[in-house]
Write a structure and sequence with these properties.
Layout: E1 3-7, H1 11-23, E2 27-31, H2 34-43, E3 48-51, H3 61-71, E4 76-80, H4 85-93, E5 98-101, H5 106-123, H6 132-135, E6 137-139, E7 142-145, E8 150-153, E9 156-157, H7 162-173, H8 181-189, H9 197-215, E10 222-225, E11 229-232, E12 238-239
Parallel strand pairs: 1-2, 1-3, 3-4, 4-5
Antiparallel strand pairs: 6-7, 6-12, 7-8, 8-9, 10-11
Length: 241
């Protein structure tokens, strides 16, 4: 069974989300505060999280998302009434995978959940239809192993969040190809950009910083193509067996 954590303090909405999840074959857990949500995560295996922003207590959804992302790579979907672009950019920048604006139909929530779980499973190599190149990738000094969720540069392990990992994997899988921010957002976040293209810039900068810290010098393979987007510069690419 797939366990989904609902973090929602409005009983009517929480019950609606729980009912739709149960009816779709998922096992829901409901928390009304950040503290309760963290306690559930410590004792249960959680495969996906549906998270509101406006919560009672010390932690709102943003701070809770940051804490959760440190604990798990499971998909995090914001489900909230806050519609400002700044909120969407902030939520995705903190490590969330998706953002749904209330009110929404239960069928829409399930569709988003299924899409994010499918993306997560494919990245972990659970999809038997994945080719060998998608099970392991080596580009020059970079080695990416999706099944183990490992990235190394010159043999040095790099700790990445879920979306940082997916972003690096996507760019490295298409060496020397230029992608716009919007194209990257569609591929990595799996839905249409609604002004969140700056989220891509935030994640690119974080990737570069982590790779720089590991190698001791600027990591120049992730290139900015001014006016066009980004590309991963590489001389060669080969499968990792």
């Amino acid at each position: 069974m797939t366990n989904v954590l609902i973090v929602e303090d409005e009983p009517k909405i929480a019950n609606m989300e729980r009912d739709f999840l149960e009816g779709s074959g998922y096992t829901p857990f409901v928390a009304t505060t950040g503290e309760e949500a963290m306690n559930i995560m410590k004792r249960e295996r959680i495969d996906a999280i549906i998270l509101d922003i406006m919560l009672p207590g010390e932690d709102d959804g943003f701070s809770l998302c940051r804490k959760m992302r440190e604990m798990t790579d499971a998909p995090i979907i914001f489900a909230t009434a806050r519609t400002e672009d700044a909120d969407i950019v902030r939520g995705l920048g903190l490590g969330a995978d998706d953002y749904i604006v209330k009110p929404f139909r239960g069928t829409v929530l399930i569709a988003h959940l299924k899409a994010q779980l499918a993306t997560h499973e494919r990245l972990l190599g659970k999809d038997e239809g994945f080719s060998d190149i998608e099970k392991g990738l080596m580009v020059a000094d970079l080695n990416i192993r999706p099944k183990a969720r490992q990235v190394t540069v010159n043999g040095i392990p790099i700790s990445l969040t879920g979306k940082e990992f997916e972003l690096l994997y996507f760019l490295a899988s298409h060496p020397n190809e230029v992608f716009s921010k919007e194209q990257i957002f569609r591929k990595v976040w799996s839905f249409e950009p609604l002004g969140e293209s700056s989220t891509v810039t935030v994640h690119i900068n974080r990737l570069r910083e982590k790779l720089k810290n590991a190698t001791g010098m600027p990591y120049e393979r992730i290139e900015t193509v001014w006016g066009s987007g980004y590309r991963f510069h590489a001389e060669e690419k080969e499968n990792v067996k």
